[in-house]
Amino acid sequence: MASYSTNEFKSGLKVMIDGDPCSMVDVEFVKPGKGQAFTRVKMRNLKSDRIWERTFKSGESVEAADVMDRDMEYLYTDGEFWHFMLTDGSFEQYAADKAAVGDATQWLKEQDVSVVTLFNDVPLSITVPNFVELEVTETDPGLKGDTAQGGSKPATLQTGAVVRVPLFINEGEVLKIDTRSGEYVGRA
Amino acid sequence: MTDWQPSASLKLIRKRAKLYRLIREFFAQRKVMEVDTPVLSAAAVSDPYLYPMRTEYQGPGTVNETPLYLQTSPEYPMKRLLAAGSGAIYQLAKAFRNGESGAMHNPEFCMLEWYRPGFNDHKLMDEVAALVQLTIGCGRSEKLSYRELFQRYLDIDPHQATVAELKSVAEERLELSTTMDDRDGWLNLLISHLIEPKLRQPTFIYDYPASQAALARVETDSEGVAIARRFELYVGGVELANGYFELVDSTEQACRFEADQRHRQQLGIESLPTDHRLVEALEAGLPSCAGVALGVDRLLMLATGATHINEVMAFPLDRA
């Protein structure tokens, strides 16, 4: 397996730390004028999502992690696995388990393209697009003429997600949702 | 591509010009003479943790290529001028340090270095404070001994603590990938990671451990501990200046060069030619003096609120 020396450290680099794949978030060169150099790295453990800092002596090496981000189209779920297919024309499919998909399930719509992070060729995590368009499957009837009054109600979307929407929204409408906050943005 | 353009804004490029003018006026008023010494030297710095860049000269006057080193600071030639009777001198010099690049480091940088015959370290600290106040207007400075600093921030005596104690203080507060067996390594780690970020107001640290004397004279303090008459200035969590009540003893200077060479061997680093001309200048007689080096790019960062050194440099390494 390849390894990286501290001189190659940069944010986004994927390395193995204590057996877990980690991504460097921030890399700081620390050197007292008269002392030896250190490299202080803020890292995210890609399994647990924990962010923490570790200090390396300059010149040390760490093992590279076989982690890759790939664009994939969501196909379907069989209840145990969520199935994705590479968009590069290879039709190669990957099955992500519940731990890998996590909260992304509520935004996964068939044919939408997400970023699947592979670790040793197995899906480790899913990053859905910042904005998705989903149909309202269930909500109280819309109030006619009420377009400016404010106020909101819950609506269930085709993926099962429940979001707060304005009172004038009706079942069957397609909405644009910000997946980072889980908030309604507007009609699609 | 737009990397032909400067990484600093024109506003900051103008601020640098203004800063240089302020610095030159400051020293002109104090009758300190500006000097110019070569960036290239046949000898190299002896400090085990400084890596000079190397080049060579070939041409009239040489048969073989002559190796030359880019200075890591103008200290040696400036001391030769002092020994030759120059009196108080300063220089705005380019210095080069291989391997140093980051938010606070560029391998080529501007160093303001000055020497004051007749001053000791404390009198020079007062002058450094005046210059910093003039250029960045950052309020009153505080002075702490190295011992007081460690007692205040980490509750340990840096001169008495064992290596094991220093290690445990570090490991309680930091996650480290490796360990070290040298005391100064741990002290430097503790300062740079745990103390330096907290030194926001200008803070002078003085009376360093004798093992970190570099080119400062060593004395015994009131507690019977050997200390170096060395000081550093921190502002805004940044190491800004390093100064000494200068070593003038040529025999001691030669011993320290040899000790540095042994240290380099232990670390497995190439030994470089030492500056015999500096030792000879000290033999001829260096006046009692204090000297200090200050990072001008960092001073400009502090004056303007820049958070990366590239914001204050026209063309840092990646555009050089």
Q: Which secondary structure elements does this structure contain, and how are they paired or packed?
A:
The complex is a heterodimer of chains A (about 190) and B (about 325).
Chain A: E1 3-5, E2 14-17, E3 20-30, E4 38-45, E5 51-57, E6 61-63, E7 67-77, E8 82-86, E9 93-96, H1 98-101, E10 113-119, E11 122-127, E12 131-139, E13 152-157, E14 162-166, E15 174-178, E16 183-187
Antiparallel strand pairs in A: 1-6, 2-3, 3-4, 4-5, 7-8, 7-10, 8-9, 10-11, 12-13, 12-15, 13-14, 15-16
Chain B: H1 10-29, E1 33-34, E2 40-41, E3 54-57, E4 66-70, H2 75-83, E5 89-96, E6 108-117, H3 121-136, E7 142-145, H4 146-154, H5 163-173, H6 183-195, E8 203-209, E9 218-220, E10 226-235, E11 238-245, H7 250-266, H8 276-285, E12 289-295, H9 296-304
Parallel strand pairs in B: 1-5, 7-8
Antiparallel strand pairs in B: 2-4, 3-4, 5-6, 6-12, 8-10, 9-10, 10-11, 11-12
